[in-house]
Amino acid sequence: MAATLPDDLRADVQTLWDYHDMRHALRPADVGIGLGSHDLGVATFAAKLFHAGMFPLIVFTGANAPTTLERFPCGEAVHYREHALELGVPDDAILVEPEARNTGDNITLTRVLLETRSISAESVILISRPYQQRRAFATCKKLWPEVDVICASRPLPLDEYIKSIGDVDRVINMLVGDTQRITVHAERGFAVPQEVPTEVDRAYGRLVKAGYQERLLD
């Protein structure tokens, strides 16, 4: 698995990377929501924000995708919790939502969990992989429109993030797939519409033609 971004793809990959970064300014919120995935760095950053006083409660949400079953056999949210505990987050500051299988589930089931615990959340920080920020934001605005939502990810440059994952093709495929989902999910009613600038659409098209199609929807 290559961990270095090829020079001929760099500009297009960087364009998509920059597009998905919502560049939200962090401010304290009622709840931090760590969206499950293959990237344990989500839990790392959630713990860091907790210790910085950004929220008093973390919800980790996620079951498994085919790509995470081997790494997180007990479920993404369960392993995120274990990692956060190792980083000093108190057990009573963590809730686990272990059933979500997509971003819509992450939002909906977390909201239900909080409501069943009579926990009021007027504001949330969604903590995700860097390239999931825009999709998570659009999904949350559709399914939980009244909440004040901030998106956050580990503040890593593209090359450092690829190095942390160790698989450049995986990162590019995920970026391409998430870019497609911005349009498709809005068309299917799963998310609010987001503008896709021409340069983003062209970069996406070139990467699809270059063979990065593993995460594309039919």
Automatic annotation (TrEMBL):
InterPro entries: Cell_Envelope_Assoc, DUF218, Rossmann-like_a/b/a_fold
Domain DUF218: 43-150
Pfam families, A to Z: DUF218 (PF02698)
A GO cellular component annotation in the UniProt record: plasma membrane
Gene3D superfamilies given in the database record: HUPs (3.40.50.620)
Protein's name according to its UniProt entry: DUF218 domain-containing protein
Organism name: Amycolatopsis umgeniensis
